[in-house]
Amino acid sequence: MSTTQSERLRELLEPLVSSQGLDLEEIAVDSVGRKRVLRVVVDSDTGADLDQIADVSRALSAKLDETDAMGEGEYTLEVGTPGAERLLTEHRHYVRATGRLARFQLTEGGELVARILGVDDEGVELEVPGVKGRKATARRLAFPEIARARVQVEFNRKDEKSYKKEEEA
Fold first, then answer.
1. What pLDDT is attached to residue 152?
2. Nearest of 98, 119, 74, 89 to residue 26 by alpha carbon
3. Which pTM value belongs to this model?
4. d(Cα 96, Cα 44) in Å, to the nearest integer?
5. Across all residues in the chain, what is the average pLDDT?
6. Residue 85 gets which letter from DSSP?
7. Cβ-proximal residues to 151 (8 Å cutoff; 6+ apart), any chain
């Protein structure tokens, strides 16, 4: 997809997504055989439920039908939310991931897995889990120190309430 088409689609669709109380996170057009698929990823600070996704999908579909932004050929519109292991690329992504475990690729090399405890304009406050029975340690990373960060799926994740109780103890 050309940058021009991507920019045109973003300019066209972002106001509609915003009017639904959501952020437009990503737009991608992929070819699947002879068909094209327009994937739109939306999110918000509180997440997006199925009703919100259905509403924004209808609004986007109507807007795309009245314009030639996708051209004449057939396409399928897919609207969804970021996956469980979302990539953290914007400040708001880090804020939304507070309390979650993330894997950080550091600009100086190396990797760190830690829980995001807080976020400000300069970086993130982390809790690095202890190894072999050791206590967890606090660490701060400035955004320039982070080459890449991705939320990790936790199958045995503590809920926030029990996590905060442990912190206070």
1. 92
2. 89
3. 0.72
4. 8
5. 86
6. T
7. 84, 85, 86, 88, 97, 100, 101, 102
